[in-house]
UniProtKB/TrEMBL annotation:
Residues 1-94 form the Pectinesterase inhibitor domain. It comes from the Eukaryota. NCBIfam families: PME_inhib. Gene3D superfamilies: Invertase/pectin methylesterase inhibitor family protein (1.20.140.40). This is Pectinesterase inhibitor domain-containing protein. Coiled coil: none annotated. PANTHER family: PECTINESTERASE (PTHR31707). It comes from Nelumbo nucifera (Sacred lotus). SMART domains: PMEI. GO terms for molecular function: enzyme inhibitor activity.
Length: 152
């Protein structure tokens, strides 16, 4: 794919993809440092999950930029991102296995949030707890985000 054959919107979307790819590389480097021998993956489980999820989301966001583009640019980008997304997805699955095998069932799920009250960190107000526990049918959403399927 030659860059000069892209229309201006496709060029902007490609620039966004390159920026997101840089962010993904940074997230994956941070995740890798969390897996070093001096760091226990089970102690940094939540951070690792967040970094890997962000990396996955970046790939979906990249594709979203080409949602209405003409031609096969989106498909070419999608094919290029497939291996990255597949590897990150596998990493998330392995992280889940680490969680089940290495974490104590008595350990706090989010120790960095302090004491828990009713399943929420103490600093979450009763009003916010009520909102978080509300049925999705009673909550008005301003935005819904979804990622296209990675099926080939």
């Amino acid at each position: 794919m030659k860059r000069r054959t892209l229309d201006p919107l496709q060029e902007m979307a490609l620039d966004d993809c390159l920026e997101l790819l840089d962010e993904t590389v940074a997230d994956l480097k941070s995740a890798l440092s969390g897996l070093s021998p001096k760091n226990s993956p089970s102690r940094h489980y939540n951070d690792l999950g967040t970094l890997l999820s962000a990396a996955m989301t970046n790939q979906c966001t990249c594709l979203d930029g080409f949602a209405h583009s003409k031609g096969n640019v989106r498909e070419e980008i999608k094919q290029g991102l497939y291996n990255i997304s597949h590897s990150v997805s596998n990493s998330l699955a392995m992280l889940k296995k680490i969680s089940k095998s290495n974490r104590s069932s008595k350990a706090k799920v989010f120790p960095e949030y302090g004491r828990m009250v009713g399943g929420f960190p103490r600093w979450v107000s009763p009003r916010d707890r009520k909102l978080l526990q509300a049925s999705t049918n009673t909550t008005k959403f301003d935005l819904v985000v979804a990622c296209a399927s990675w099926n080939r």
